Amino acid sequence: MTIPEDLLQFIWKLRLFQTDQLKTVHGDPIHVVQVGEQNNNAGPDFLFSKIRIGTVEWTGSVEIHMRASDWFSHGHHRDPQYHNVILHVVWDDDQDVYYKDGSLIPTFKLANYVSEKLLDQYQRLMEGQRWIPCENQLHQLDAFKIEHWIDRMAIERMEEKSQAILVLLEQFDGDWEKTFIVWLFRSFGFKVNAKAFEALGEQVSTLLVQKYRRDALKIEAMIFGQAGLLNTNFNEEYPLKLQQEYNYLKNAHDLKETHFPLLFSRMRPHNFPTIRLAQLANLLQHDRMHLQEILKIEKLNDFRVLMDQIQVATYWKTHFNFGKQSSLISNHRLSTVSQNIVIINAFIVFTFSYGTYMGLEEFKEKAMYWLEELPAENNNIIDKFEQMGVSCLHAAHSQGLLHIKNRYCDFKQCLSCGIGLELLKR
Length: 426
Known about the structure:
Elements: H1 5-13, E1 22-23, E2 29-34, E3 37-38, E4 46-53, E5 56-67, H2 70-73, E6 85-92, E7 107-109, H3 116-127, H4 143-171, H5 176-188, H6 194-203, H7 206-211, H8 216-226, H9 237-253, H10 273-283, H11 291-296, H12 300-308, E8 319-321, E9 324-325, H13 336-358, H14 361-373, H15 380-387, H16 395-408, H17 418-425
Helix pairs in contact: 3-17, 4-13, 4-16, 5-6, 5-13, 8-9, 8-10, 13-14
């Protein structure tokens, strides 16, 4: 079995080795007073470690390698950052290692003090071809510990999404209103058209949205036109009016169209990007669609009220795309499920992000509280976890589970996962 270096670091960090009667490879007794602080930057793996070797207590760094000879192959003998290493922790002591002055660096062979049970458990996690690495072991864990990790992952998912928003904020020179509009567009693109809608949001002027808020035709023309959906010959009155209005706006304000294609394939007609853009255009006409108004909201139900007020133009009640009348008649109201997705991805995430940037914990807490008020999302990943006995009581849980699957399980990051940690400690 190949032992990766990150597993050795994991074992050292959590003291998952026999802790008494330790010795260096040359027989000197060792007592690990403090394993140190893991260093994720350049330099030794652990800093501020305290190790008693013989009768002398040393403070310094600990470096960890699979093989002792890696000290030389990694060039540490030439790097001043490693001159204060007080212990070299290795799995295979294939070579003595020396300080610059020629004295021997104390070496500790970790392989002599790690249980086979831990290695077997790690091997099962890494080599299994199951949906998640711990699928067959998950039932061994206390439900409270699993829920605690899911809660932590819900916060981490919010933090990760917040970083994407803060990248946009920097791109728009600190303009929160523009950043909000772009993120709202992205959220209305849902999973399939998120990137295309984000690109469209970048093209749409927040100033023009405010200027024409009371003029539904202009808002719709601007959005559909800049999405590139009005560059064709129409016979119906509504798209002709949109096209005429957009040509005026385009010349008056030097509008640019996005060249990011919208996707219609393998999608139910109710989810077509044309319908989503019509819904978004109507939402933007609402008086509360200013960031400062959104940030004043305290009750989750206020977002529901906003979503319930969305009404598309009459044309869309008999159409799913331009120029193609449908026998189906629909008011194209956002379903409760779709509302929840927009509330989570647009409003809750943005509130959390604003709190993160401004250092306002009350905004972050409010966002997480709203997540716990919403029902859990319903998708294949959540269904699979529930089949495995993992409870999913609300949207914070479903967000946490999605994050675990997408960021940890899919990449077998068991050494960074709280569930993996508990299994390896057993």
